[in-house]
Amino acid sequence: MSEQKKPPKSRVFYLRMKLLHKQGNKPQQDKNNNWFHTYYKWVLWLSFSLYFFTSYLITSNPNNTNTPTSHVSNSESNVVPRTLVESTSNTLGVLKNMKVFVYELPPKYNTDWLANERCSNHLFASEVAIHRALLTSEVRTFDPYEADFFFVPVYVSCNFSAVNGFPAIGHARTLISSAVNLVSTEYPFWNRSRGSDHVFVASHDFGACFHTLEDVAMADGIPKILKNSIVLQTFGVIHPHPCQDVENVVIPPYVAPESVRSTLEKFPVNGRRDIWAFFRGKMEVHPKNVSGQFYSKRVRTEIWRKFNGDRRFYLQRRRFAGYQLEIARSVFCLCPLGWAPWSPRLVESVALGCVPVVIADGIRLPFSSAVRWSEISLTVAERDVGKLGKILERVAATNLSVIQKSLWDPGTRRALLFNNNKKVEEGDATWQVMVSLSEKLGRSYRRSLVGDQLKSDT
């Protein structure tokens, strides 16, 4: 284990000066506060008076030609609903006032892993994308004393196995424990809240349990050191589960936005779709072997056994680099569970305009306030997988066009994609993460101090 680096002396000096400043000359501070309070009231009163007076002049002028008008087409109005405008304005206000401090950890915790190019673009790469976006985000603050949340950037999914190439996360608990020990030793912010306002990313199969097999993950549980924090994780179910026994936000798996854009240039979402039902991925032919007995709870095995000979279903067991082109040509995309309930196919299907058919009992889908999952997808119970043909036929004959219209909304696609331009864009996946965090501002130590101060003043 390499020696842990302390933060630069300038930062330690800044924190000490901040602490000393908070314990300064009390009487003089009170005197200054009283003068400032009186001055502030007069400025505020004058500003409101001018605002209402000019507003009256503008709205009452019959010759005013700057009043916005609504352009209505023959088919439907383009006017944005008032509730949506108010909701967006409220969100913008909350995010503008919310602040996140990003710890600058030694590179062994994050950027050293980027030596492997896969680290920043595989399905678990949301841990990298969120970190990069926050570094240039307007919600970032360099003053930890004004922060509502503290982001701890530890990459645990980039340790790829030399045997099968899959992420090996046996080191995750040790790496995160080391990072927490560092920030709790060098900074006062972890200890004062016991980590309740600190945020981590766990973007692999069973999230903060840090294991790829559910039975082992459940037995290990979430590390005690994280129990009081907030975890952004791809794993989520609607029923109690040891691997979500922590304050958490369900996030989408990472799908490279540039690959989606490239595919849509060849096959736009409203283009011709010549594949009726599509799935490409691991499907066991022999249900009696170990993988066949446990993997996907045999759902994928049943799909292959039942529909491999059905000409309506395009089922492929081998990997293909250009499989997104197949998704863009498909009407329905099957999204059965694998080892975990979630799958990158959920994001790829939505992004490429293919109706996702979710086959994973009890799954909790990401960003339900921004993505209207019930209007853009189908849910089929695992026990009903043998009836897929009839279920999809019924939908195709009734409300398929309605589902597709909702599905092809660009805002839905944007909400599930993390940007690769290293910044937060309004409405994108990192933006949705920030919105979800804004709903947890009650965990902000800074806000609790302000609340206590207001109570003591009344």
UniProtKB/TrEMBL annotation:
InterPro entries the UniProt entry points to: Exostosin, Exostosin_GT47
GO CC entries: Golgi membrane
Localization annotation: Golgi apparatus membrane
One MF annotation (Gene Ontology) recorded for this entry: glycosyltransferase activity
GO BP, one annotated term: glucuronoxylan biosynthetic process
Pfam families according to UniProt: Exostosin_GT47 (PF03016)
Topological type in the membrane: Single-pass type II membrane protein
Superkingdom of the organism of origin: Eukaryota
Residue span(s) of domain Exostosin GT47: 96-394
Keyword Glycosyltransferase: yes
Coiled coil: none
Keywords in alphabetical order: Glycosyltransferase, Golgi apparatus, Signal-anchor, Transferase, Transmembrane
Family assignment from sequence similarity: Belongs to the glycosyltransferase 47 family.
Protein name, per record: Exostosin GT47 domain-containing protein
Gene behind the chain: LOC100807050
